[in-house]
């Protein structure tokens, strides 16, 4: 595969490698977001995030987002994206696409046989995919991890 450049929406790509599991305790209490309730002091078990966030280990990659084209979808510069290449790209999913040898992070829209890559920021224009463009959906974004 040719070396790809980015339109500024992707900063870096990393592969997933299964390794040492890091199970963490799960507190068996529901945390209310409204009024406080008395704390329950017990641990229900352990949880390994990779078991919940990664469905297809051999097809999963991590990427850092860069740029502001997807802020309306809650994706900010520096956010960690979990990308699964085994999931079918359907309309309205957020995808990593390659357009004319350039990586981009956008929402895929398929409408009456027309393909569009839609940014989630009014300052950016949608990209209509035409027959003369090299286009492939590289993977589907399944989770976004960012600090609060």
Taken in chain order, the helices and strands follow as EEEEHEEEEEEE
Classify the helix fraction into a percent range: under 10%
CATH homology group: Umud Fragment, subunit A
Structural class: mainly beta
Here the CATH topology equals Umud Fragment, subunit A
| Beta-strand percent range | 35-45%
Overall domain count: 1
Cα gyration radius (Å): 18 Å
Number of extended strands = 11
Q: What's the tally of helices?
A: 1
**CATH class descriptor:** Mainly Beta
Give the terminus-to-terminus CA distance.
Answer: 37 Å
Mean pLDDT: 85
How would you sum up the major sheet? 9 strands, mixed
* Architecture (CATH level 2) name: Ribbon
Q: How does the overall form come out from the CA principal axes?
A: globular
Uncertain spans, ≥5 residues at pLDDT below 50? none
């Amino acid at each position: 595969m040719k070396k790809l450049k980015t339109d500024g929406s992707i900063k870096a790509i990393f592969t997933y490698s299964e390794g040492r599991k890091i199970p963490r305790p799960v507190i068996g209490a529901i945390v209310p977001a409204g009024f406080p309730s008395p704390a329950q002091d017990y641990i229900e078990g352990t949880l390994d995030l990779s078991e919940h966030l990664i469905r297809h280990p051999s097809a999963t990659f991590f990427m850092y987002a860069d740029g502001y084209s997807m802020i309306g979808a809650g994706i900010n510069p520096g956010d960690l994206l979990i990308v699964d290449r085994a999931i079918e790209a359907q309309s309205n999913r957020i995808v990593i696409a390659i357009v004319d040898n350039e990586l981009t992070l956008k929402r895929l829209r398929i409408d009456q046989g027309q393909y569009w890559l839609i940014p989630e920021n009014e300052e950016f224009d949608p990209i209509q995919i035409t027959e003369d463009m090299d286009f492939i959906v590289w993977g589907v974004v399944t989770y976004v991890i960012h600090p609060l």
